[in-house]
Known about the structure:
Blueprint: E1 6-12, H1 17-23, E2 30-36, E3 48-50, H2 58-65, E4 70-73, H3 83-104, E5 108-114, E6 127-128, H4 138-157, E7 160-166, H5 178-181, H6 185-197, E8 203-208, E9 217-218, H7 237-243, H8 252-255
Parallel strand pairs: 1-2, 1-4, 2-3, 4-5, 5-7, 6-9, 7-8
Amino acid sequence: MGIQLHEKLLLTGAAGGLGQALRQRLKANxxxxxLSDRVDFGAAGAGEEVVLxxxxxxxxxxxxxxxxQAIVHLGGVSVEGPFxxxxxxxxxxxxxxxxxxxxxxxxxxxxxxxxxxxxFYRQSETITVDAPPRPDGLYGVSKAFGEDLSRFYFDRYGIxxxxxxxxxxxxxxxxxxxxxxxxxxxxxxxxxTACLSTPxxxxxxxxxxxxxxxxxxxxxxxxxxxxxxxDSSDIFRExxxxxxxxxxxxxxxxxxxxxxxxxxxxxxx
Length: 269
């Protein structure tokens, strides 16, 4: 499933749920996989390096990035919450990452953006990759910032980035909303492989979803990436309906694509 184009590939957020799911899969994409997170997650295995780094620490991020040819950036705060940690990890931390990439000549980044960049579109709408951001919280705002920052580093410095607006990547859909947003771990790897290997990436936005029958997102504007999902939430539909109640159509979490994120907070730092 992998295409090995890079000698050394960096995976940030390696201790997180998606990082753990991708750790073995991404070894097919490189000779050496460098893994990083802010917390100790164990020793390196065969074909691996481990570099611990807090994204808010520019010097540590510089060391983390040195010597790699491409970056899969999953690191940072991945849920809605107080602004302080989001600011440090997702805004300052992303700036540190792109500055290190610029200094060390890294020319391709796969940035884990989020469906929460567009969470305030309604579930009755289908949007394209060109739809303007409508973040559903401070987390979504930070990811919208990341998309803009990566655009700047492409326009100014030629660093190609795929902003992957990840839906809901779990072993299987947990609820009815995820029937539309689900992204299997294998499809996530297929998507990252496509982003790393497409001949000309430029600055691209692509929705991270499997081949679900129900969807709010149109990826036709990202066809040049070459992502072809092979899994689908449809095989889980009957079981999801059986264990969940009918949606309350007056609930904002049902009305908007961001689900419960549209109601989260406010939070105190």
